[in-house]
Amino acid sequence: MRNPLLSTLLLGSSLLGAATCLNTTISNSFVNMFSTDGDLIDSTSGKIDYFEGQFLWYGLNFGCGKAFCGIESWSSQDLVTWSSNGLLFDPKEIAAATICASSGDCGRPHMIYDSSRALYILWVNAGTPGYVIFTSSSPTSGFVPESSRALVGYQPEPETHQAGDFSIAMINGTGYIAYALIDFTTLGASIWPPFKQSIYIQQLSSDFMNTTGDATQVLPVGDLVDLQAESPDIFYRDGYYYISASNTCGFCQGTLLIMYRATDISGPWTRQIISSDTCGGQTTSVLTIPSSTGGEAIYVHQADIQASAPLAGPRNAQHGHQFQVLNFNTDGSIQNLDCSASVSTTITLPSTNSSTPINGLAQSATLGSGNGHQDYYLNCSLPQYVLYQTFSTPQSGNLTTVGINLAGDAPTDNVTLAVFRFPNATALFSPFYKWETLSTVDVTPEELSAAVLAISIPVGKEVAAGDNIGIAITSLGITPVCVAMHGTNSEYATAWAGAANGGFVPAQSVGEKVANGTETGSGSGGVLYAQGDSQVSYRGKNGNEIPILELSGRELKWYAIVE
């Protein structure tokens, strides 16, 4: 195993001073982020740390449609290109499954590295009292539960006072935990939560597997904002300790973004509210990126953007994310979050010392709509429509694989994917024309995830340069099925502008002009068409309009491999 670096909060300028700087751009338009395999990153309540020379993003999966599907991690060198490492542990293993079935569902995972033992320590919220600890020699796999729980300094009665959302961090060599204590003795609400919760902060033991000393309550105002605080994270900057938090939300589509700060870990604390709705989401963490030259560090706020999710349920796998650089005033206060889609910041990162390649099937595919950030959004117009994504092959060879992104909401039947060849659009739209089928795959309800995963279609047929290829997507069920879509012109190019700036493109809207067979397309050069379900005859007052809509300016997320 490579020599692990300390977490982001411990990285010092001496460690990074010899590194070659890497510039990367963080943008509010980067909402739906995809792994190098083409999958939408299914992370809720996630955290980014810096381990083994790479950024490590880990968070809860919800693609299986249950309260706990596992904790997945992704690695990146630039905070833009993310490669999946798989799950930190097997969620079906008996011990882990039993632990994560408890209240908390192994939520809000946070990790710390103990260099003296070369040990990664994972804390999760599962049951009571305190928290459950997993350990591993690797930050990406092999985590096993410890026999003892980590307790907290203030939890009067585990039956009525439950340790909830939390964060752990190491600051100047000392470990800390900030946790929300849920007080269930305040009951009686119907719409509002039937409890109060506020943040406590406490030091960790020297082995980072328990707490020590007294817990201090963070309650600068004492109003309902302080008494409904959750999802904390801890960081340190220029003489100030900071705790980021939200109000009670439960994976909701927007809540307050709170920032507490103090010059001493025990307080007194000052409170700010820097966003009214966290751009349509909930805060998860703040990533500290120390300067490679010993200058000012960069602090990147991370949020789950639940308002961008088109399917039902708070625990959903289709929501987006937002990374935004925090800006500070001279008194240590933080400037308001800016939800504008145009916000974009170029930052300098340390270069990686990792030899692990960041690649994947969609990243290295010969053809496709692109796996980078192109303002992809999610469209759930199936089964209301059948979609046809077409493209032209620029080279001859064997078309081995075609991929398309899909997600389902409690699917009731198969989704049929067909790859076909056709001479031109005129022929394709002609009555009684039959295309040449190259491959067909039925995706069963059991195979269709609630996460927007890239589905591979094996083809294995020879193609010539200039061949017209299509992907037909037909849902046979009655519940929504989603695809990933992005704009290729200015009208559709910005899918997400934040709740304060117009929201997102309607998830089931495809309205567009009737196809005429002459659209040249943009983006990858392909054309996207939609056909109303069972609309198989001419339409229009003169009885001569074909029932096919040409979705100009838009393209599905797809890839193809020609060898």
Automatic annotation (TrEMBL):
CDD domains: GH43_CtGH43-like. It comes from the Eukaryota. The keyword tRNA-binding does not apply. Transmembrane segments: none annotated. Keywords: Signal. Residues 1-21 form the signal peptide. Coiled coil: none annotated. The keyword Signal applies. This is Beta-xylosidase C-terminal Concanavalin A-like domain-containing protein. The lineage of its organism: Eukaryota, Fungi, Dikarya, Ascomycota, Pezizomycotina.
